[in-house]
From TrEMBL:
InterPro entries linked: Aldolase_TIM (IPR013785), GH (IPR017853), Glyco_hydro_27 (IPR002241), Glyco_hydro_27/36_CS (IPR000111), Glyco_hydro_b (IPR013780), Melibiase/NAGA_C (IPR035373)
Keywords (A to Z) from UniProt: Disulfide bond, Glycoprotein, Glycosidase, Hydrolase, Lipid metabolism, Lysosome, Signal
Quaternary state and interactors: Homodimer.
One Pfam short name: Melibiase_2_C
UniProt similarity note: Belongs to the glycosyl hydrolase 27 family.
Domain annotation Alpha galactosidase A C-terminal: ranges: 314-396
Classification via Gene3D superfamilies: Aldolase class I, Golgi alpha-mannosidase II
UniProt protein name: Alpha-galactosidase
Length: 436
């Protein structure tokens, strides 16, 4: 349906737009978003605590500010669909539904900014949002960008329901330009690729990286391990196309963290967190921060895993191996020659003893120190050729942060030995293991 002249015109239009280079999101964003947990609950009569209303966002801002989240980097509070009134105002501006946002968005933005946080909002490139609220058609892009900036919005999620690929090809770059033109630094999250199947040639990732800070590539996450697993699988199966697209200021977005909700066991929650860190994914929770199990909090607030996710080099990791045993190995290179390894079990029986060596995982010869991210234990004096064994729970992970050691360390302390013995079973290094 795209004829060549139209395509050329569109490409020219796109190349004329100013690249979105406002220095934002050099590392993946962290924060909280309403959608997966609170959906389009507009029933403030019967469900006042959970409906999409200013109270919900104030509550979550209080929690982020008071429960240690902000200090860890969780800073964006993002409103999703269903915040709008069914009608634009008399000047054609979007407005919040007055019964649910009586103070208006600018006041909510002040509340959030006063707590050292940032506000995100949702709009849709099309005639309607996915839930049927007013959309942003091409003629409304400028006014909507201006409205958001005037309210003090810091982040826009721009969805793509109810538009076709030709309109999207105009609308997404135009919004980028319109946001730039406001003069306010606003993070721009594009759902565009998710509406085009997420892969080249339909999706042009270098263009996306120039105009958007992050983008949804694939289907919505749901509150289940199946959904998380499906997302991990799709991103890994397509890593040759997706992984090179990511970098500082340009991120793939496999969607929200659902840790703390109903669908994941503790092991599965660790798996989501581990894989999102490997993928350099946005760490945007969608859960009820007022009511969170300690196990979920511990996973989401794990400093080492957050540091891995937020590594300044910003290189997305990759799946290295899929074993017949249904063990998969993931790897991400990090600053200071460090790296992260994740061993994921897709088994459904019992903890699996996986034997390997760093050499088998493409590591250079030498000695390494490993930190187990979820148990905070340390392994020293690990040689690339050392065959080691990790015990991986069904649908769980073992995650390591690895640093090469310049010099071989002297003997382990007793404490190290104890930790090692309790966490890992070491086999004698097999001589002659070479780097793959
Ligand atoms: C789409 C998006 C979701 C959410 C809903 C809201 O499905 O992908 O993340 O924003 O719309 O209606």
């Amino acid at each position: 349906f795209l004829d060549k002249t139209l395509l050329t015109q569109l490409l020219t239009l796109i190349s004329l737009t100013v690249a979105l280079d406002n220095g934002l999101l050099k590392i993946p964003p962290m924060g909280w978003m309403a959608w997966e947990r609170f959906r389009c609950d507009v029933d403030c009569q019967d469900d006042p605590e959970n409906c999409i209303s200013e109270g919900l966002f104030r509550d979550m801002a209080d929690r982020l500010a008071e429960d240690g989240w902000r200090e860890l980097g969780y800073e964006y509070i993002i409103i999703d669909d269903c915040w709008m009134s069914r009608l634009r105002d008399e000047q054609e501006k979007l407005q919040p539904e007055p019964s649910r946002f009586p103070g208006g968005i600018a006041k909510l933005a002040r509340y959030i900014h006063d707590r050292g946080l940032k506000l995100g909002i949702y709009a849709d490139m099309g005639t309607h949002t996915c839930m049927g609220f007013p959309g942003t058609t091409l003629d409304k892009i400028e006014i909507d960008a201006q409205t958001f900036a005037s309210w003090g919005v810091d982040y826009l999620k721009f969805d793509g329901c109810y538009s076709n690929p030709v309109e999207q090809m105009q609308g997404y770059p135009l919004m980028s330009k319109a946001l730039n033109a406001t003069g306010r630094p606003i993070v721009y999250s594009c759902s565009w690729p998710a509406y085009l199947g997420g892969l080249p040639p339909n999706v042009n990732y270098s263009l996306l990286g120039d105009i958007c800070h992050l983008w949804r590539n694939y289907y919505d996450i749901q509150d289940s391990w199946d959904s998380v697993q499906g997302i991990i699988e799709w991103f890994s199966d397509n890593q040759d196309d997706l992984q090179p697209a990511a970098g500082p200021g340009r991120w793939n977005d496999p969607d929200m963290l659902i840790i703390g909700n109903f669908g994941l066991s503790v092991d599965q929650a660790r798996s989501q967190m581990a894989l999102w860190a490997i993928m350099a994914a946005p760490l945007i929770m969608s859960n009820d921060l007022r009511n969170l199990a300690n196990s979920a909090r511990a996973i989401l607030q794990n400093k080492m895993i957050i540091a891995i996710n937020q590594d300044p080099m910003g290189i997305q990791g990759r799946r290295l191996l899929q074993e017949k045993s249904q063990i998969e190995v993931y790897w991400r290179p990090l600053s200071h020659s460090a790296s992260a390894l994740v061993f994921l079990s897709r088994r459904t029986d019992m903890p699996y003893l996986y034997h390997t060596s760093l050499a088998k995982l493409n590591y250079d010869a030498g000695s390494y120190e490993a930190y187990e991210v979820f148990t905070s234990s340390t392994v020293t004096g690990l040689n690339a050729t050392t065959v080691f064994t990790v015990s991986i729970n069904p649908s769980g992970v073992v995650m390591w942060y690895l640093i090469p050691q310049q010099k071989p360390r002297q003997s382990d302390t007793l404490y190290d030995q104890h930790k090692k013995a309790s966490q890992f079973m070491f086999h004698k290094a097999k001589p002659g293991h070479s780097t793959l």
